[in-house]
Amino acid sequence: MKRPSILAIILAGGAGGRLGVLTDQRSKPSVPFGSHYRLIDIPLSNLKHSHISDVWIVEQYLPYSLNDHIANGRPWDLDRTHGGLQILPPYQGADGEGFAEGNADALYRQAKLIRDFNPDLVLVLSADHLYRLDFRDVVDTHLQAEAAMTMVTTEIDGDTSRYGVVQADGGRVTGFDYKPEEPQGKLVAAEVFLYDAEVLLDTMDLLADSEAGLKDYGDSLVPYLVEKAAVAEHRLDGYWRDLGTVPSYWEAHMELLDGGGFNLHDPGWPVLTASPQLMPAYIAAGARIEDSLIAAGATVHGTVQRSVIGPGTVVEEGAVVADSVLLHNVRVGPDARLVRVIADDSVVVGRNSKIGDDGGITVLGAGNQVPADRLVAAGTELEPDSGTSK
């Protein structure tokens, strides 16, 4: 049986407001994770290992940081003469021009390009989730079910009201509620959708001209297909986490350190990235490190406990960093103490400052200069380059 042609589209255009100051100066897909990785690395690595090589990335918000990381797509084997990686920014002067009003609208703005490419199937992905999935298995589910769309689902603990909540029976999706106030069940859409290309294009044309219009996928596109067409379920039983909020971002790092979270080091399915070219980390005499990840280029003179230390970051003598995530080129001054802190790029913490505690998560926006002897309460969020609370 001839395998269908597949076009993968990663929707990477949203502002990522739920991540607060971490996305004030970068797009959400380019937010670092696990020291030197980026969130975009997850879908790109899954695509590489699934042998899907026609990949489009739809951009909108602050694209520079994302473009700088992706470059020509070489780490994911997407720097090809035919096919490979294409970046699709907003544009003017033709059908689909302007800024999208949601992820389904962003997809619809590429409709002419999709028609010209003429794939059999369109695989639509988000760029803010941690998971490992062979998309070829999703294709098999789709073909066996003769589905118009196949939705990847997963069961989660906790509140499901910020997700698309799914009802399924015997491999078929029978109901879908988008961000319901009173969710029924723990099964949610993992934001991986495989569409028959013709059905997708025809449905978007229909809905774009309707009163409902096209905004986010859960507003009209997915509900319409669940009601009118055959929608198959592909269950993801492994690890899956949405990284779209500050608490979930911090928790995912703590799970990574506990060994019960996402495995970045699976030799059979590694996460690929454009790693910075840096010297190995330097650990000074007298430094103390417990249950932590220390990136290349980092220097530790003080104490690091259950934390992730990013490339180029320095922890000075006498400083204590606990239950924290420090991104690139952070400097923690002598005798400073950070507890449950996320520090963005190039933050400088002055001598003997005390930031956070065992309460809420404290976030320091990029470039913050925290003076010596400063107390910053737990749960505070400092704007990039400002030092004022948000």
Describe the 3D structure.
With 390 residues, this protein is an alpha/beta fold. It is 19% helix and 28% strand. It is built from eight helices and 31 strands. The chain has a seven-stranded mixed beta sheet with strand order 5-4-1-6-11-8-12. Strand 4, helix 2 and strand 5 (84-88) form a beta-alpha-beta unit. The longest helix has 13 residues, at 246-258. The N and C termini lie far apart (57 Å).
Instruction: Let me know the largest β-sheet.
Output: 7 strands, mixed
Number of helices: 8
Instruction: Choose one word for the global shape.
Output: elongated
Mean residue pLDDT: 89
Query: Radius of gyration from the CA trace?
Result: 22 Å
- Helix proportion range: 10-25%
- Strand arrangement in the largest pleated sheet: 5-4-1-6-11-8-12
Number of extended strands: 31
Low-confidence stretches: none
Terminal Cα separation, in Å? Answer: 57 Å
Structural class: alpha/beta
Strand content: 25-35%
Task: Characterize this entry briefly.
The protein is of the alpha/beta class and 390 residues long.
Q: What is the topological layout?
A:
Elements: E1 6-12, E2 32-33, E3 37-38, H1 41-49, E4 54-59, H2 64-70, E5 84-88, H3 103-108, H4 111-117, E6 121-125, E7 129-131, H5 135-145, E8 149-155, E9 164-169, E10 172-178, E11 187-196, H6 197-208, H7 221-228, E12 231-235, E13 240-242, H8 246-258, E14 282-283, E15 288-290, E16 293-294, E17 299-300, E18 303-305, E19 308-309, E20 314-315, E21 320-322, E22 325-326, E23 331-332, E24 337-339, E25 341-343, E26 348-349, E27 354-355, E28 362-364, E29 369-370, E30 375-376, E31 381-382
Parallel strand pairs: 1-4, 1-6, 4-5, 8-12, 14-17, 15-18, 16-19, 17-20, 18-21, 19-22, 20-23, 21-24, 22-25, 23-26, 24-27, 25-28, 26-29, 27-30, 28-31
Antiparallel strand pairs: 2-3, 6-11, 7-13, 8-11, 9-10
